[in-house]
Design goal:
Largest interface: A-B, 24 and 27 residues
Helix content of chain B: under 10%
Oligomer: heterodimer
Shape of chain B: globular
Structural class of chain A: mainly beta
Radius of gyration of chain A: 14 Å
Distance between the termini of chain B: 37 Å
Number of strands of chain B: 10
Structural class of chain B: mainly beta
Amino acid sequence: QKEVEQNSGPLSVPEGAIASLNCTYSDRGSQSFFWYRQYSGKSPELIMSIYSNGDKEDGRFTAQLNKASQYVSLLIRDSQPSDSATYLCALSRSGGSNYKLTFGKGTLLTVNP
Amino acid sequence: GAGVSQSPSNKVTEKGKDVELRCDPISGHTALYWYRQSLGQGLEFLIYFQGNSAPDKSGLPSDRFSAERTGGSVSTLTIQRTQQEDSAVYLCASSFSGSFQYEQYFGPGTRLTVT
């Protein structure tokens, strides 16, 4: 099993809909979870971080973490064409090197006007 | 405030040449990271600096790669005798401190092309 798995997509949603992006991971000791947005040709931009089970909301974005099931998700409400990008799930694993981020390969989201 | 800056933004070099990539972290951030993003490979960790501690070089792919951080701020990643497989985007990130609790912010990257 890959350390961090994401559906590569593309995930296509109409403008105004909710986009749901999912990520599963293999290391039960993973401690911190991050969602980055990456526009084509640009560097990753941090959107959300989540450290404990449950939901965390920030504007149109909600991150959800379920450590028992080893998944983390990102919901984007009222999706806009400007949300079209690749979304990267990242985590820091347990142990002494917990500063290292391990990334999934990303899900390409397309929001259609 | 200013984000992470990197230079150059693009670098084209001939196989066998040495290259230096520079990173200037966010002011006040003590932790600095280098990652590499290759087509189809995703983002991979290369090296980590935290203050005056010994760096974690475990992600460097070969001994042709080295990095230093001077004065706890600016970092330089050096690739000697470049190979075509070194072609990638090299990303620098920084965080307030080096721990799982701290969010990492990326610079714009340096796109390296080895011909």
